[in-house]
UniProtKB/TrEMBL annotation:
PANTHER family: OS04G0344100 PROTEIN-RELATED, S-(+)-LINALOOL SYNTHASE, CHLOROPLASTIC. It comes from Erythranthe guttata. The keyword Magnesium applies. This is Terpene synthase metal-binding domain-containing protein. Its cofactor is Mg(2+). Keywords: Lyase, Magnesium, Metal-binding, Signal.
Amino acid sequence: MLLLVHLFYILGLGGTHNQGAILLEVNSTLISSVAAILRLSDDLGRAQNRKDGSYIEYYMRDNDGLSFKQAREHVINMIASEWKLLNKECFDVNHYSPTLSFYREACLNLARMVPLMYSYDDNQRLPILEEYVDLMLLNP
């Protein structure tokens, strides 16, 4: 979330102090959706191998008798809900602003990278990322 807020100001979208606060408040759904997708995907990708406060772990503690599979399904549904909010924010023509379109595209592209970044296999490797790198760098 902090990266996206900084990006907002680095791109010069902050304007004056009051104007920047208003624009950032308007885009708070955009920022929080991307941050939630990133955090929940991280927890989903590494939940079985970590005991450091993942959402899945706490959700299972709060809902006694819930299986790991059910908790994962809940997180997957939460990610889907955040994607709906993100898409609504990015593609709603009523709130379209040419000034913010690059920022929205940057946020959307960051969210699109999340599944790739957290597609671990059983060996905690990223085979899809390795395929992309091989495709981009090694194939002419």
